[in-house]
Amino acid sequence: MEIPFLLFDKSNPGIKAEMLTAFEKVYDSQWYIMGESLLSFEKKYAAFSGVKYCSGVANGLDAIIISLKTLNIGPGDEVIVPSNTYIATWLAVSSVGAKPVPVEPLKDTYNIDPGLIESAITPATRAVIPVHLYGQACEMDKIMAVAAKHNLFVVEDNAQAHGALFNNKPTGSFGNINATSFYPGKNFGALGDGGAVTTDDHSLYEQANITRNYGSDKKYHNQVKGVNSRLDELQAAFLEVKLNYINDWNKERNRIAALYKEQLTGIGDIVLPAIAPGCTSVYHVFMIRTEKRNELQQHLLKMGINTLIHYPIPPHLQQAYKDSMYKRNDFPIAEHIAGTCLSLPIYPGLTNTQINYICDNIRLFY
């Protein structure tokens, strides 16, 4: 049996007619940038996210960069980031000239440890970026409390957690300004690149809109040194269609995750995902850990089961950050996760037969 890591076979066909209608509407409008489709999607995504405002941008990295720019974070500033995250979180901080300051995650949830944030704060610290990693909400009450105590901004990286909740409140609604990605592989993905900024602060929303559009809110009048990063009409129209289905798709991911947990509990040295109190997960990734990760991955591949590693090299050990002077063992939790993590297939359309086949072969390995 051949099982890809990700397929859209169930989600795409069921909405194809609606997507084609959306395409025709944009095509016939002859207005392809910053039009009615974008405004309509932004309004609906803001409501979905539990905030007043949404600004569509070109991708998730730009969403974090623009969020930081609106807060006037730049050279000489420090921003606290998780030591284990996709490198985009760090790159955004570096892109505005600030310094990423890593903080280790909790060993069971893999999200940033709120108890370690305070010790990383210096007079130069301006903000903290909690990442809702693998689809699970961070413990935002503790993070917000530390930020308030030290007068820090909070920028949520919500790229993997569309629809996740902390204490029944959506991720992407806690921070001063928050960023997300609509990369096609996300739970809520476009048919190309895309991203968004969410906030309850009208002044930050206006600044984000200006920044994404060459620093301009009026053609040929540029208030700041902005960027060109706008969610186009076509992707906005596609996303508006998909927004009607994201909660159902997330429920399907949770169903699959429950089956994995039921069948893999107590198998070998496997560590299964844990959910923190008050948090929910939308399981963008179903990540297990094992000291025999590489051997297990090869075994599954021989059986036709495709897996991925999120992420094999922590940011502090990447060549891109060799100038940071970080070295191996500086962040041992992040490094241990990177060396033991393995992501199993999880997506709407994965059948019980396929799930059983995956779990049977994991048990066979052990």
What report would you give on this structure?
This protein has 366 residues and is α/β, with parallel strands linked by helices. The protein folds into two domains: 11-242, Type I PLP-dependent aspartate aminotransferase-like (Major domain) (Aspartate Aminotransferase, domain 2), CATH 3.40.640.10; 246-365, Alpha-Beta Complex (Aspartate Aminotransferase, domain 1). 38% of the residues lie in helices and 13% in strands. It is built from twelve helices and 13 strands. The strands form five sheets. A four-stranded parallel β-sheet has the order 3-2-4-5, with helices on both faces. A three-stranded antiparallel β-sheet has the order 1-9-8, sandwiched between helices. Helix 1 packs antiparallel against helix 8 (233-242) and helix 3 (60-70) packs parallel to helix 4. The chain is globular and about 65 Å long. The mean pLDDT is 98.
Topology (elements, then pairings):
Layout: H1 11-29, H2 36-49, E1 53-57, H3 60-70, E2 78-82, H4 88-95, E3 99-103, H5 114-117, E4 125-128, H6 140-149, E5 153-154, E6 165-166, E7 169-170, E8 178-181, E9 195-199, H7 202-212, E10 216-218, E11 221-222, H8 233-242, H9 246-264, E12 286-289, H10 293-302, H11 332-340, E13 341-344, H12 352-365
Parallel strand pairs: 2-3, 2-4, 4-5
Antiparallel strand pairs: 1-9, 6-7, 8-9, 10-11, 12-13
Oligomerization state of this entry? Answer: single chain
Helix content: 25-40%
Question: What's the pLDDT, averaged over the residues?
Answer: 98
Highest CATH level, the class of the largest domain: Alpha Beta
Percent of residues in beta strands: 5-15%
Overall form: globular
CATH architecture annotation of the largest domain: 3-Layer(aba) Sandwich
> Largest beta sheet, briefly?
4 strands, parallel
* Number of separate strands: 13
Termini Cα gap: 20 Å
Total of helices = 12
* SSE order, one letter for each helix or strand: HHEHEHEHEHEEEEEHEEHHEHHEH
